[in-house]
Design goal:
6 strands, Nuclear Transport Factor 2, Chain: A, 34% strand, 6-stranded mixed beta sheet, alpha+beta, single chain
Length: 154
Protein backbone atom coordinates (compact mmCIF):
# COMPACT_ATOMS: atom_id res chain seq x y z
CA UNK A 1 0.00 0.00 0.00
CA UNK A 2 2.78 2.42 0.95
CA UNK A 3 4.56 1.79 -2.39
CA UNK A 4 1.34 2.55 -4.29
CA UNK A 5 0.87 5.86 -2.45
CA UNK A 6 4.50 6.84 -3.13
CA UNK A 7 4.11 5.86 -6.79
CA UNK A 8 0.94 7.92 -7.17
CA UNK A 9 2.56 10.93 -5.45
CA UNK A 10 5.62 10.61 -7.70
CA UNK A 11 3.45 10.51 -10.83
CA UNK A 12 1.44 13.50 -9.59
CA UNK A 13 4.61 15.56 -9.01
CA UNK A 14 5.89 14.62 -12.48
CA UNK A 15 2.57 15.62 -14.06
CA UNK A 16 2.49 18.98 -12.26
CA UNK A 17 6.15 19.69 -13.15
CA UNK A 18 5.56 18.84 -16.80
CA UNK A 19 2.38 20.94 -16.97
CA UNK A 20 4.07 23.94 -15.36
CA UNK A 21 7.09 23.56 -17.62
CA UNK A 22 4.89 23.41 -20.73
CA UNK A 23 2.97 26.52 -19.60
CA UNK A 24 6.24 28.31 -18.96
CA UNK A 25 7.53 27.32 -22.39
CA UNK A 26 4.37 28.60 -24.10
CA UNK A 27 4.82 32.00 -22.39
CA UNK A 28 8.42 32.13 -23.52
CA UNK A 29 7.40 31.31 -27.09
CA UNK A 30 4.67 33.99 -27.03
CA UNK A 31 7.03 36.62 -25.62
CA UNK A 32 9.84 35.78 -28.04
CA UNK A 33 7.27 35.96 -30.86
CA UNK A 34 6.44 39.59 -29.95
CA UNK A 35 10.09 40.54 -30.40
CA UNK A 36 10.54 38.55 -33.60
CA UNK A 37 7.42 40.18 -35.10
CA UNK A 38 8.84 43.59 -34.18
CA UNK A 39 12.19 42.71 -35.72
CA UNK A 40 10.54 41.44 -38.92
CA UNK A 41 8.31 44.52 -39.23
CA UNK A 42 11.29 46.84 -38.72
CA UNK A 43 13.28 45.02 -41.37
CA UNK A 44 10.39 45.49 -43.82
CA UNK A 45 10.39 49.24 -43.10
CA UNK A 46 7.05 48.92 -41.28
CA UNK A 47 7.13 51.17 -38.20
CA UNK A 48 3.40 50.69 -37.61
CA UNK A 49 3.93 46.92 -37.55
CA UNK A 50 6.90 47.38 -35.21
CA UNK A 51 4.74 49.44 -32.86
CA UNK A 52 2.20 46.59 -32.65
CA UNK A 53 4.45 45.11 -29.96
CA UNK A 54 3.93 48.13 -27.72
CA UNK A 55 1.03 48.81 -25.38
CA UNK A 56 -1.22 51.31 -27.15
CA UNK A 57 -1.65 53.54 -24.11
CA UNK A 58 -0.67 56.97 -22.84
CA UNK A 59 1.05 55.06 -20.01
CA UNK A 60 3.64 53.40 -22.26
CA UNK A 61 7.10 54.43 -21.02
CA UNK A 62 10.11 54.57 -23.36
CA UNK A 63 13.50 55.81 -22.21
CA UNK A 64 16.61 56.21 -24.31
CA UNK A 65 19.67 58.46 -24.30
CA UNK A 66 18.60 60.08 -21.05
CA UNK A 67 15.23 61.09 -22.54
CA UNK A 68 11.82 59.92 -21.41
CA UNK A 69 8.99 59.39 -23.88
CA UNK A 70 5.50 58.73 -22.55
CA UNK A 71 2.63 57.35 -24.55
CA UNK A 72 2.22 55.14 -27.61
CA UNK A 73 1.39 58.00 -29.99
CA UNK A 74 4.37 60.10 -28.94
CA UNK A 75 6.68 57.09 -29.26
CA UNK A 76 5.27 56.27 -32.70
CA UNK A 77 5.72 59.85 -33.90
CA UNK A 78 9.30 59.92 -32.63
CA UNK A 79 10.09 56.68 -34.49
CA UNK A 80 8.49 58.04 -37.69
CA UNK A 81 10.54 61.24 -37.45
CA UNK A 82 13.85 59.54 -36.56
CA UNK A 83 13.53 56.67 -39.04
CA UNK A 84 11.79 58.27 -42.01
CA UNK A 85 13.67 56.23 -44.62
CA UNK A 86 14.49 52.55 -45.05
CA UNK A 87 18.20 53.48 -45.10
CA UNK A 88 17.91 55.05 -41.63
CA UNK A 89 16.06 51.99 -40.36
CA UNK A 90 18.62 49.51 -41.66
CA UNK A 91 18.40 45.88 -40.63
CA UNK A 92 17.51 45.26 -36.97
CA UNK A 93 18.78 42.26 -35.07
CA UNK A 94 17.86 41.32 -31.49
CA UNK A 95 20.20 38.85 -29.79
CA UNK A 96 21.21 37.26 -26.47
CA UNK A 97 17.68 37.55 -25.11
CA UNK A 98 17.17 36.80 -21.43
CA UNK A 99 13.49 36.37 -20.59
CA UNK A 100 12.34 36.10 -17.00
CA UNK A 101 8.70 35.54 -16.14
CA UNK A 102 7.83 37.69 -13.14
CA UNK A 103 4.27 36.36 -12.96
CA UNK A 104 1.66 34.87 -15.26
CA UNK A 105 1.00 38.41 -16.50
CA UNK A 106 4.43 40.07 -16.56
CA UNK A 107 7.90 39.44 -17.88
CA UNK A 108 11.30 41.12 -17.87
CA UNK A 109 13.55 40.92 -20.92
CA UNK A 110 17.16 41.92 -21.39
CA UNK A 111 18.84 41.79 -24.77
CA UNK A 112 21.11 43.30 -27.35
CA UNK A 113 20.05 45.23 -30.45
CA UNK A 114 22.00 46.10 -33.55
CA UNK A 115 21.19 48.12 -36.66
CA UNK A 116 23.14 47.24 -39.77
CA UNK A 117 23.12 50.22 -42.11
CA UNK A 118 25.16 51.23 -45.13
CA UNK A 119 27.18 53.94 -43.33
CA UNK A 120 27.15 52.85 -39.69
CA UNK A 121 26.33 50.06 -37.28
CA UNK A 122 24.72 51.38 -34.08
CA UNK A 123 24.08 48.84 -31.34
CA UNK A 124 23.35 48.59 -27.66
CA UNK A 125 21.25 46.92 -25.01
CA UNK A 126 17.63 47.09 -23.92
CA UNK A 127 15.49 46.12 -20.97
CA UNK A 128 11.78 45.58 -21.51
CA UNK A 129 8.85 44.92 -19.26
CA UNK A 130 5.97 43.12 -20.93
CA UNK A 131 2.46 42.65 -19.65
CA UNK A 132 0.03 39.95 -20.71
CA UNK A 133 -3.25 41.42 -21.88
CA UNK A 134 -6.31 39.40 -22.96
CA UNK A 135 -4.77 37.72 -25.98
CA UNK A 136 -1.19 38.88 -26.23
CA UNK A 137 1.90 40.30 -24.59
CA UNK A 138 2.77 43.98 -25.02
CA UNK A 139 5.81 46.06 -24.10
CA UNK A 140 4.75 48.52 -21.38
CA UNK A 141 8.26 49.82 -20.60
CA UNK A 142 11.32 50.01 -22.87
CA UNK A 143 14.72 51.24 -21.72
CA UNK A 144 17.18 51.24 -24.60
CA UNK A 145 20.77 52.43 -24.61
CA UNK A 146 23.33 52.76 -27.37
CA UNK A 147 26.86 51.48 -27.12
CA UNK A 148 29.45 54.24 -27.44
CA UNK A 149 32.42 54.01 -29.79
CA UNK A 150 34.57 52.89 -26.83
CA UNK A 151 32.25 50.00 -25.98
CA UNK A 152 30.33 51.46 -23.03
CA UNK A 153 26.68 52.46 -23.14
CA UNK A 154 25.33 55.99 -23.34
Amino acid sequence: MFKKVISVLFLLVCFISTTCSQQSNSWLIEIRSVLMKQQDAWNKGDIEGYMEGYWKSDSLLFTSGGNIQRGWNATYEKYKKSYDTKAKMGKLDFSKLEIILLSEESAWIFGYWELKREKDNPKGVFTLILKKFKDDWKVIHDHTSMQSATGGSK
